[in-house]
From TrEMBL:
Coiled coil: none annotated. One of its GO terms (molecular function) is transcription cis-regulatory region binding. Keywords: DNA-binding, Transcription, Transcription regulation. The keyword Transmembrane does not apply. This is DNA-binding transcriptional LysR family regulator. Residues 1-58 form the HTH lysR-type domain. Belongs to the LysR transcriptional regulatory family.
Length: 284
DNA sequence: TCTTGACCGGAGGTCGTATA
DNA sequence: TATACGACCTCCGGTCAAGA
């Protein structure tokens, strides 16, 4: 399989049009046709369904797409590393979750850059599983995740443990001394999934309910709490700053079962220990 | 003896165009 | 959009000569 064929496949899947894909790649349309044809022959599967009006990915094409994207990303990443050789004494790709980038890492990264100015640092944001997958692909050198991978090539180091509490806007009025689980039906509750232990606890404590409002982005979730849209569970490290600035307050909540703590882990491939050692020590 | 560079020919890829 | 076709280009492998 040629990289050019992969590029043609990605261009057609992106534009849904052979002519536009050719324009994108600055090659002739017939070349795109040939490349796709050769790729399909190699795979022994049709990757696109074509007719006079449109081009669509076949199920085989849909399955192949994420792999093609990963190969292309890896190729570009490899090129970048080779091109940057000699410019820095080293380079580290650091992956973690969006909420941690926003609330935990900026001062750490800033301090690390001051101490190690000759190490090029690149950050990548994603969910725990994305970070682990990209680490397995050789894309990420070190990461911080909430779900530790169980793989013999990956070293897992416990990093910190955070607690989750119920928070609301400073002006939110509660009519009781303490909120209990039975009160949730009457409260403007916003749900954010803080990982599987939290979800399991939520289901055990509050039942399998349909949430009136559920978001999957921590930044949006915090914005909604700050705007007084409702109440919700938030890790302490995110809430801390907003509480200090009198924007949010912790609500007195008595759960039937204790809310599980949220441990974070530093992960890195064992073979890259020497490469990430300085940042690892800095984080710890 | 090995390395390097120049040259040559063949194979395969790409292009532009025409057509279905 | 797919295919065919001729022209052109690029790459690769082989050969040979010069130099270290």
């Amino acid at each position: 399989m040629e990289f050019e064929q992969l590029e043609a496949f990605l261009a057609v899947s992106q534009t849904k049009n052979f002519t536009k894909a050719a324009e994108l790649l600055h090659i002739a349309q017939s070349t795109v046709t040939t490349r796709i044809k050769l790729l399909e022959e190699k795979m022994n599967k049709k990757l696109f369904e074509r007719n006079n009006r449109m081009v669509e990915l076949t199920p085989a094409g849909i399955n192949f797409l994420p792999f093609a994207q990963r190969i292309q990303e890896l190729m570009y990443e490899g090129e970048k590393i080779v091109r940057s050789e000699g410019l820095f004494e080293g380079s580290i790709v650091f992956g973690s979750l969006q909420s941690l980038w926003e609330y935990v890492f900026p001062p750490i990264i800033s301090a690390f850059r001051k101490e190690q100015p000759k190490i090029a640092l690149r950050t990548i944001t994603g969910h725990s599983n994305d970070i682990i997958q990209k680490m397995m692909d050789g894309f990420i050198d070190i990461g911080v995740v909430y779900i530790p991978p169980h793989h013999h090539e990956i070293e897992v180091v416990p990093y910190f443990e955070d607690t989750i509490h119920l928070f609301a806007h400073q002006n939110f009025v509660i009519k009781k001394d303490s909120i209990v689980t039975e009160d949730f039906n009457k409260l403007p509750y916003i749900h954010m999934n803080w990982g599987s232990p939290f979800t399991e606890w939520y289901l055990k404590s509050l039942g399998d309910v349909i949430y009136p409002l559920q978001v999957d982005n921590s930044t949006l979730f915090v914005k909604m709490l700050l705007s007084g849209e409702g109440i919700g569970f938030l890790p302490e490290y995110i809430a801390k700053g907003h509480v200090q600035e009198n924007q949010l307050k912790k609500l007195p909540f008595t759960p039937t079962h204790p809310i599980p703590k949220r441990p974070a882990y530093i992960i890195y491939p064992k073979r890259k220990k020497a490469k990430v050692e300085q940042l690892l020590h800095f984080l710890l």
